[in-house]
What we know:
alpha/beta
Amino acid sequence: MMLLMLARYGLSGLWQASDFMKYIILIGDGMADNPIHERQGRTPLELADIPNMDKLANRGTTGLAMTVPKGLEPGSDTAILSIFGYNPEEFFSGRSPLEAAGLGIDLNPGDFSFRCNMVSLDDAGDFSKKKILSHSGGSVDGSDALALMDALTDNGTFGQLAQENGIEFYKTPSFRHIAVQRNYRRSLDSDFCTFPPHEYISREIGEFLPHGESGRARGLRGLMGLSYGILDGHPINQERRTKGRLPANCIWFWAEGSAAKLPRFAPGGLVVTAVPLVRGIARLIGLEVAEVAGATGDISTNYEGKAAAVLKGLSGGLDFAALHVEAPDECTHNGDLEGKIKSIESIDKRCLGPLLDGLSDLGEEFRILILSDHKTLISTRGHDAGAVPYILYDSREQKCSGRPYSERECEKGGLVGDGTQLIDRLLENTMD
Length: 432
């Protein structure tokens, strides 16, 4: 566990790469799933054509890993902390502070941040009776996302209510925004809680609005209700409907937390991702974050560009890189099984394939860990805390598991009960 201790306590100068090895983590967000009855009990990983993953699994070590400690909500926040060796029971202080860090937002003592999704609600009667149709506002992005948020903050009534509740909005060209409540109160009320919208698709929202009798909860509920009244008839949403797309007609607060601090990741290195959460974790632990044109966080992302950014970092002297692809998770939340299968195949062909070719051209020995951060289930369109399948491959060794890459096959390789151990197995001189 020495490397993990170095990572936790920031003793990065004591870590040295051995034998000129390169170390890589490839995370397919939400790839793992349960058997799907309508597809003969096979999972998306089993349905996908993934020759590169299967080859590495066959020649390497495979197994299952618990990346989310028991009792914690399954999500990329807790799971990716585990994958980098940080026990979320010790280091997790909320999802949104990690995303805020990824956007360069400073949180001070007494500040609380929230993820502010743009969601799609149906047109049923009362606000509390409406159902969530999409956690991502029908995948709204770009200028439309920014213009809709501008319509809220430029509205005098909405702006006044936000000011009364100490809320500042930080907008992005996606459905993911951040709201910060500046020094509103020193702590969250004991009965206060919020709910992730992607876990409650097709459910009436009343019982999942910010919970509690405090002024904080009432203020957030008020802003959400007011946002629907402003956004539902907005010209952008009217146009989206005419094109058969869902409207981004409400904001949704969730994932509250206070400022996050994490010890430095011992090896240093590079992270490639389009998602603010993962960018935030990377920046908080001292890793570089690559900017990749066309990296979107959905199925249309620039897979080849992400692989090229990893290879550029490794050829430029870095010894460690992590590549994160959000697409399988987003497809699952959207109930798009075929999209999930296609995104997994794209990770294999358009990310992993070029990575392997590039490492061969560089003449580099390498060790790679491939895994899903958590399960995301087509059956529920939500996250699941079950163990995820992993591959650990060393280019110098042929462990020969003899198995392809899937949940069912990796189960035969045994269970790593503590996901924080995976980083040690990747970085240590010998693999278990």
